[in-house]
Amino acid sequence: MIPTLHYISQGKTPEEHLDHIQKACTAGAELVQLRLKKLPGKVVWETAKKAREITEKYQTRLIINDFYKIAAAVKADGVHLGKTDTCPTVARKELSSWQIIGGTANTLEDCETLIDKNVDYIGLGPFRFTETKENLSPVLGLNGYLTILEELKAEIPVIAIGGIVMDDVTEIMKTCVHGIAVSGEITRNFNTISEFKKLINGGPLDEQRWISEEKRK
Question: Do residues 104 and 123 touch, judged by C-beta distance below 8 A?
């Protein structure tokens, strides 16, 4: 089962990424994605090993962005591949059968291509403009998700991604996505993880108040 809330790591240094992953795990994250860009493979490898050690303690799933060989080597739970990264069928040959592969999509055609290549989930976005990612694909917004998911008619888990904040969650989940991926909002306050989870599952539970039999009469 693919978790419904993905935390995408942020940080100016590998150490900051690890610190944020530690905080996310402590706050109850079920899945974190280590997303290091423009760094040597050796640095990514060392950071991924440390991220694996952290996430194992909390039984949090760890996904490595882009570097599928490193994901295989550190026995991460899987890899997430961008549109210009390695083909999922190539990565699959390097990974164990239990390791999952996620792929980035922006259009219906992207989704269908990823399904043909047997990915385990699709990261569909961006929901809105974000400075987290360079060479951003066209923004989808709510209408974009509704249109694509209505046409797709597939059971594969679709994760909404791209500039998502707390106020967006309820409306995004109505589009029938499986879950959401969040980076900035969680990095600013890791205590929001529990609130995101509640909203993804349909909002805060109504408070159950105990009322005595006498007052019920």
Answer: yes
Secondary structure of residue 7 in the 3-state scheme: strand
50, 24 contact by CB (below 8 A) = no
The tokens for 108 are 């219906």
Q: Is 38 left (phi over 0), alpha (psi -120 to 50) or beta?
A: left
Locate the DSSP E strands across 66-206: 78-81, 100-105, 121-124, 158-161, 179-182
Selection from 6, 29, 40, 23 nearest residue 14 by Cα: 40
pLDDT digits (tens, 9 = 90+) for 170-205: 999 999 999 999 999 999 999 999 999 999 987 654
For the chain, state the CA radius of gyration: 18
pTM over 0.85: yes
Is the C-alpha dihedral spanning 20, 21, 22, 27 positive or negative?
positive
Instruction: Return all residues near 87 (Cβ < 8 A) that are at least 6 apart.
Output: 81, 117
Cα–Cα distance between 96 and 37 in angstroms, integer?
24
Nearest Cα to 120, choosing from 78, 73, 74?
78
Query: Any bridge partners for residue 34, and if so which?
Result: 64
pLDDT of residue 133 exceeding 70, the answer is no
Q: Calculate mean pLDDT across residues 114-121.
A: 97
E strands in 72-215: 78-81, 100-105, 121-124, 158-161, 179-182
Is the pLDDT score of 211 beyond 60? no
